[in-house]
Design brief:
Blueprint: H1 10-41, H2 44-52, H3 55-67, E1 85-88, E2 105-108, H4 110-119
Antiparallel strand pairs: 1-2
This protein binds zinc ion.
Zinc ion binds near residues 72, 109, 111 and 112.
Length: about 120
């Protein structure tokens, strides 16, 4: 006569728990991916990139181009609105709260903007 194991369902239970654990691990991974996308969407850079293509952003650029009399704010060469770069006077990396603060924005020629971004690289 054989004695039945004390927990006959244990192997099934263990298997079910492992499956559940795998499923939950996958869900955590999916949530982390979603959270990363949400953080990315609300990042100061993304916020700025969205703003500059809005009507407000385009209008600001036109007005700013006139205010700067069609010149780069740094080297003063003539720039077209289309090819000009929007510069964050206080760098976005250090002042994310000023991402779309128009008092912190100006137009630069591509050369000056690239020169300036290199300067602020850590
Ligand atoms: Zn310039």
């Amino acid at each position: 006569m054989s004695i039945p194991p004390p927990f006959p369902d244990f192997p099934d239970l263990a298997r079910s728990l492992m499956l559940l654990k795998n499923k939950l691990d996958q869900q955590v991974k999916d949530f982390e991916k979603d959270a990363q996308e949400i953080r990315q969407y609300y990042s100061p850079r993304a916020k700025f990139e969205r703003w500059k293509v809005t009507e407000d952003g385009k209008l600001w650029k036109e007005k700013q181009h006139k205010r700067q009399e069609g010149c780069c704010d740094e080297c003063k060469i003539r720039i077209e609105i289309k090819g000009s770069h929007i510069d964050h006077i206080q760098p976005l990396s250090k002042f994310p709260e000023l991402a779309i603060d128009v008092k912190n924005l100006r137009l630069l020629c591509p050369d000056c903007n690239i020169r300036k971004s290199n300067k602020y690289l850590p």
